[in-house]
Amino acid sequence: MTDRLLRLEPDGWDGAPLALAGDRTLIGRSSEADLVVEEPSISREHAVAWLTPTGWEITDAGSSQGTAVNWMRLEPDERVGLVTGDRVELGGLAYMVALEGTPFDSPKPPPRPGRVSHETVSADEFRTRGSLIMKLKEGDTVSRELSWNDFYEVYAPIISGFARRAGCPAGDVDDIVHEVMTNFFRAAERFEYDPALGRFRGYLKTAAINALRQRYRKNRRKTSFDPAWLEEHPGRTDTLWAREWLGQLIVRAIETVRATTSIESRSWDAFELYGRRNVPIDEVSERLGMSPQAIRKAKSRVSQLIRDEISRLREEEG
């Protein structure tokens, strides 16, 4: 009996979490499914999850409303690996992935391909979070300013989105972001990230929660928002943070794949329309002048490149 468990925590709705432990689990509305989810948007046989020697995988089972991982649509023959922090959509329901038990000995992602773009962009543009902090420590004024801009562009949207989803008043969100970023800037000279003490994203989440708490203490007489629930419900808080972190990770992965590959624009359009926006394939075919087979092939190719880049970014950031 394996101790490896796949948990799907509801993202943005008050449904019950799903727990999967078998070698093969059929998820669906049918009473014959291994895991029954009685929701109108779930097909009788909606998706299948497998426990493999290298990790959990999932695919669509020919559902009417589709299955997606990290906002990328899956085909019935397309099996995709899952790790903690991924987002799975089953019809109209969305979940965040949490793996429990013995870690998998998963293979590392392939090396990032060389750039083919002729844009004037430094090799540091897509470097790790650690490199950004190291650049903040450099004495040169220009290097400090450029690295700070990079750092802000990557992490400010995460803090902003988390604060909004946590219920922070809209008028206070920018101040929360400013406070967290200012504190990091002030500490840049002495800050040393030690992966052994926890992931950087956990460190940043704690900083964001502290900023929300301090803001509440200053304005408690003027607001009904109380961040105490973030500490009282750590599971929900982790889900909120993971969702924002993943969203920004995907943005960076897409930007990197666009910059480092020579994929034609029509293939990107097929990926966006069919793979991300769920536009019916016949409509995409008419709009782009591509056959359904070519659309699926382009979508799958771009999706795989983006998934590889997400894996590389996660590997780099610890």
Describe the SSE topology.
Elements lengths: L4 E6 L7 E3 L3 E5 L6 E2 L10 E6 L2 E6 L6 E3 L2 E2 L6 E3 L4 E4 L2 E8 L28 H8 L4 H25 L4 H18 L12 H20 L8 H5 L1 H27 L4 H12 L4 H8 L3 H26 L1
Parallel strand pairs: 3-4
Antiparallel strand pairs: 1-2, 1-11, 3-5, 5-6, 6-9, 7-8, 7-10, 10-11
Helix pairs in contact: 1-2, 2-3, 2-6, 3-4, 6-9, 7-9
Task: State the main characteristics.
alpha+beta
Describe the structure.
The protein is of the alpha+beta class and 318 residues long. The chain has helices at 129-136, 141-165, 170-187, 200-219, 228-232, 234-260, 265-276, 281-288, 292-317; strands at residues 5-10, 18-20, 24-28, 35-36, 47-52, 55-60, 67-69, 72-73, 80-82, 87-90, 93-100. A six-stranded antiparallel beta sheet has the order 2-1-11-10-7-8. The longest helix is centred in the last third of the chain and has 27 residues, at 234-260. Mean pLDDT is 85; it is low at 115-128.
Strand order of the largest sheet: 2-1-11-10-7-8
Question: What is Rg?
Answer: 21 Å
Major sheet characteristics: 6 strands, antiparallel
Mean pLDDT: 85
Approximately how much helix is present in the residues? 40-55%
> How many E-type strands?
11
Low-confidence stretches: 115-128
Structural class: alpha+beta
Distance between the termini: 30 Å
